[in-house]
Structures are given as structure tokens and as C-alpha cells.
Amino acid sequence: QVQLVESGGGSVRPGGSLRLSCSASGRTFNSSVLAWFRRTPGKARELVAAKWWLSGNTHYADAVKGRFTISKDDVKNTVDLHMINLQPDDTAVYYCAASKRWIGVIELVREPEYDYWGQGIQVTVSS
């Protein structure tokens, strides 16, 4: 059984940066799509960024393009989300998700496509 665990969340001021990390136990990410979602109170969980593990291709939500970067660390077997120029609208609980199989761009936003989820980690951007 795969377990995903997020780390690196916290509170920052507007314009600040954070790096979230998602580690997996039980298997490697070799043949999966890895993604970061976020949820704010009263809203549905939304896709932030995704990475196809084998090809290295990435996909970002328009709201975070140019500010967030999803990357993988083959040694640590983690997928990270580096966030810069954070704004109050980025305040949310961030979730790591993994799919056992390849999924296309259109399917990336669909939560049922993902087999594993982390417990979520809070990111707060406030002055």
C-alpha cells in the first residue's frame, strides 16, 4: 500500500516562497503521474500542478504558471512543489496525489483518476 506524506507547509508573507515535498512509501513513482492539488474553504479541490514521472512533462494551472514549479527527486523519491511570489489567494491545504497509470491532460483535474492521496498540508499567505 502506497502512503503519501506532504511536508514543508507553513505561513509566509505575500511575496514569500515555500517548498512542499511529497514522499511515498511502498513504491516508487516510476510509472505514475504525480500531482499537487489545493483546497480552500468553501471551494472544490483544484489541480495546481502535475508531472508525468517517466517523461518529465509538466502541467500547471493558469493561476500558478511562472510561480510554481513541480519537480522530482529520484534519489529521495519525492515530488516537490516550489512556490515563489506567494499571494493570499494561494492560502489553502495542499495535497499530493499519485496515479498508478498514465493519464492525459484532460483527465489530470479529475480526482478519481488518482489512486493515492496525502493527508494535506496547510499553506498560509498573510501579512
How is the secondary structure organized here?
Elements: E1 3-7, E2 10-12, E3 18-25, E4 33-39, E5 46-52, E6 58-60, E7 68-73, E8 78-83, E9 92-99, E10 116-117, E11 121-125
Parallel strand pairs: 2-11
Antiparallel strand pairs: 1-3, 3-8, 4-5, 4-9, 5-6, 7-8, 9-10, 9-11
Describe the structure.
This protein has 127 residues and is mainly beta. Helices cover 0% and strands 47% of the residues. It has strands spanning 3-7, 10-12, 18-25, 33-39, 46-52, 58-60, 68-73, 78-83, 92-99, 116-117, 121-125. The strands form 2 sheets. Strands 2, 4, 5, 6, 9, 10 and 11 form a 7-stranded mixed β-sheet that branches. The model has no long low-confidence stretch (mean pLDDT 92).
Task: Fill in the keyword field for this structure.
7-stranded mixed beta sheet, 47% strand, 4-stranded antiparallel beta sheet, mainly beta, 127 residues
Q: Quick gist of this model?
A:
The chain has 127 residues and is mainly beta.
Order of helical and strand elements:
EEEEEEEEEEE
Helix content: under 10%
Q: Given the structure, what is the number of helices?
A: 0
Round the mean pLDDT to the nearest integer and report it: 92
Residue fraction in strands: over 45%
Radius of gyration over alpha carbons?
13 Å
Residue ranges: pLDDT <50 for 5 or more in a row?
Answer: none
Q: State the separation between the terminal residues, measured CA to CA.
A: 40 Å
